[in-house]
Amino acid sequence: MTETEALIALNQLPKTGPVRIRRLIEAFGSATKALKQAPAQLQGVSGIGPETAKIIADWESQTDPATEIREAKEREIQILTRESENYPSALLNSYDAPAILYLWGELLEKDAHAIGIVGSRKLTHYGREMARKFSYQLASAGMTVISGLARGIDTAAHEGALAAKGRTIGVLGSGLCQLYPPENLPLAEKIAYGHGAIISEFSLHKQPDKRTFPQRNRIVAYWSKALLVVECPSRSGSLITANLATDAGKTIYAIPGPIDRPNSAGCHELIRQGATLVTDGTQILDDFGQLDFKAESPAPKVIRIDLSEDEQKIVTILETRECSVDDLVQETGLPPHQISVSLMRLELNAIVLTLPGQRYRLR
């Protein structure tokens, strides 16, 4: 048995998380040797009680690492250990670094320059637009956006990075063959095939549960250079992620919202506790030294894009007046869905502003 196979076996067992796996390796010299120990010897390791020792000693009846490796290879999924060259360096220093990471896609050196973006699953229109806007701006400037591929803010953050043709990483609270939520499979495929990676520390067919999501959150917190909380209520998994990031010495950013909206209460709480209030992605980029500033003005340079033919038509019309989507459909002859896609890209790039009543004008 190889060391990787032994680590996969330990990782698949119940009650043997990354901390216990690390202690077993420290006690016996390797995961392979740990699997050869009798229950009595295993109980001599801190945190290994009789029940856990029995589970580890009986590992062959519960796991099949060879099959796991074969299936991962068939699905073009890499299995990383802490010794792998492309194992994320930001995770290595944590006491509970994952023993195994399953990687779908590709990690680049630049992914070390990452920012976590998290928030509520039950997002508002405001939260969705803020997540897309900030993610677009940060990804356009070269930062990798990390989030949890969950419904809500996570999904919007990944979408914003993809719209910017930037890098994004989704960290799952389930196995890669049990991707959750299932409706995000097309989004995961877009990320994995050329725009980043989908990551999980869980075995391929692990179903999500209440424990797997907090475990996932710590990877987002530890990997990120800083964490942006877009929108969340006062009781939210995003606040757990923010606390983990704070304990790890990371800067926390929070976007304010209407003071009477429960969905923004968590962000306001973070701001009261010392998180940095931000209203534009350029403020974060300034902290990271990503932008140049004109000597005569404190305002950061605006990120620009080359407009498509459709976008140019819309901009030309909005130069003269405010318009609704229906107005733009009538003026340009473009279908509504194409107008909506173009407006989103223009808004994310700070060229177009959405007004009440779903009307639009140039910034």
Question: How would you describe the overall organization of this protein?
Answer:
The structure is a single chain. The chain has 363 residues and is an alpha/beta fold. It has three domains: 1-68, Orthogonal Bundle (DNA polymerase, domain 1); 110-168 and 207-287, Rossmann fold, CATH 3.40.50; 309-362, Winged helix-like DNA-binding domain superfamily/Winged helix DNA-binding domain (Arc Repressor Mutant, subunit A). The protein is built from 17 helices and twelve strands. The chain has helices at 3-12, 18-28, 31-34, 39-42, 50-57, 65-74, 89-92, 125-140, 153-163, 185-192, 212-223, 237-247, 265-272, 281-287, 309-318, 325-332, 336-348, and strands spanning 78-81, 100-105, 114-118, 144-147, 168-171, 196-200, 226-229, 251-254, 276-277, 323-324, 352-355, 359-362. The strands form two sheets. The protein has a nine-stranded mixed beta sheet with strand order 1-2-6-5-4-3-7-8-9, with helices on both faces. The chain has a three-stranded antiparallel beta sheet with strand order 10-12-11. Helix 12 (237-247) links the parallel strand 7 and strand 8. The longest helix has 16 residues, at 125-140. The chain is elongated and about 80 Å long. Mean pLDDT is 90; it is low at 291-304.
Indicate the topology.
Elements: H1 3-12, H2 18-28, H3 31-34, H4 39-42, H5 50-57, H6 65-74, E1 78-81, H7 89-92, E2 100-105, E3 114-118, H8 125-140, E4 144-147, H9 153-163, E5 168-171, H10 185-192, E6 196-200, H11 212-223, E7 226-229, H12 237-247, E8 251-254, H13 265-272, E9 276-277, H14 281-287, H15 309-318, E10 323-324, H16 325-332, H17 336-348, E11 352-355, E12 359-362
Parallel strand pairs: 3-4, 3-7, 4-5, 5-6, 7-8, 8-9
Antiparallel strand pairs: 1-2, 2-6, 10-12, 11-12
Helix pairs in contact: 1-6, 8-9, 8-14, 11-12
